[in-house]
Amino acid sequence: MIERMIYNTVWDKINAYLVFLIPILIIGVLLNIIKFPIVAILIFLSFIFLCNNHEKSVVCALVFCKMIGTFGPALGIHVPGTVVAFFLIIVFMRKDLMKLFNKHTTKPIVFILSVFFIFMVYYLLTGETRNSGSKFNTMVIALCVDTIAFLILVTFDDIRMERLTVPLLLFALMQLGYVESFSGHRPAGILDFSFFRNACVDMMRKGLPVLSYHNMGIAAFLGAAFMMSQRKKINNYFDIVFLFSAFWLILLSGARQTIFGFVFLVFVWMVFRTERFKLTTVILAATVIVGIYLCLKMLEVPILQDSSVRGAHLGSDLNRNYDYPLMIISYHFLDGIGFGNYHNPYTNEIYPHNIFLEILCEMGFVGLIFVGMVVFAFVRSHHFLLRNELPSGGICLLLWIPYLIRSMISGDLSENISLFISMFLLFHYRGIVVSRKRLEQLMRLRRTPKSVYWKKTNEEVQASNSEIIEVNK
Predict the structure, then answer these.
(1) Is residue 117 a part of any domain in this protein?
(2) How many whole angstroms separate alpha carbon 266 and alpha carbon 270?
(3) Are the C-beta atoms of 253 and 302 separated by less than 8 Å?
(4) What's this model's pTM, rounded to 2 decimal places?
(5) Which residues contact 400 (CB under 8 A, 6 or more apart)?
(6) 312-328: pLDDT as tens digits
(7) Are 220 and 172 a contacting pair, CB within 8 Å?
(8) Structural domain of residue 459, as residue ranges?
(9) Inter-residue contact 163 to 242 (CB < 8 Å)
(10) d(CA 348, CA 360)
(11) pLDDT tens-place string over residues 161-201
(12) Is the separation of the CB atoms in 465 and 457 below 8 Å?
């Protein structure tokens, strides 16, 4: 049964109307009726009027920083997007900025800086090429901005994911409108799923300012992850329209990994949306995934059709050349070829499309062991629950999946520092570190018979129950 959406404020109602407008905007952009500057205006309006200061800071880090860096050079505007985004974050967070750096966020910050320190040492010792310097600069930028965004998410409980996701979908739609306006190509229809990818490739060959079709899919993918993280069930038209719009944009992007990532996101959400793990839920989730796949085959999505007719070899299925990185690992298996020095002179590749392969190529098994030790130490020091929640109620695992998918299939090590930054969303439970000894005490207390509680004072009962709820929420 479809339930009505509950609006806390007038702005939430306007935000919902904007979501219902997105499918119409997609059709308008594909038919060349709505131009991408109109979508940009909608992004700024939703940013100014619909988000609070904490949400505006997250949007600046995740949307505006990429938005300025993507469209600035293409439009002849050379403005450092990261500097602008960082300045806006300081303005919006001026009263609460110091709250981000407290005793509850110390360990995640130490973890992030430890991973970055390993990359920095390898860069200083082995970085010799122009690509290595550019890669290190990108890593520093991502470290500063993305860390602030994730710290805000794990610190404040007044963040509504519905308000964060609208700018992400509009950002994806803005990229679609840009390519449709300047590529010279026109889609064959509103279900032409090959148009955007082919237009981007053609613009690249002609030397025109081009956008990455991956970025469009990732923006919509991240928006879907944000929204689904706060849902235990799809129970109103807002959720249905939002997921439909996000999936439509992902299909239009033509990025295989984002399409498969969205399907994986749906599977994980169905399994972990409640606190109880059931075999029937897994079977139901698998059935839904098969249904989605059959629907995509019926729609004749070109990307899926192309991948299905390729050979069984993993590299050819994903259109990736793994022979070159594997050859590098065989010759430099211990120390790698140096940070940022991966380059295939025959195919002009600057990364092997896999974060593990890239670490092995550039840093060797020694670097992989160092990074693995830091990650293992951080994971081991935290109470780990797959359904860890943000203060706003979002499931951390769902927000981590887009960064995992991006880094494992297509991405650069410098840009995927966000993968490590987002890991404390998964392992840092509500910003509270529970020691193993204290956790065992609380679990024993939970199994205590009710008669024992009657002997306690009301204050002791309330204090104990609140601690148990915080750990088992």
Answers:
(1) no
(2) 6
(3) no
(4) 0.78
(5) 422, 423, 425, 426
(6) 333 443 445 677 888 88
(7) yes
(8) 440-472
(9) no
(10) 19
(11) 888 888 888 888 888 888 887 777 778 778 777 888 888 87
(12) no
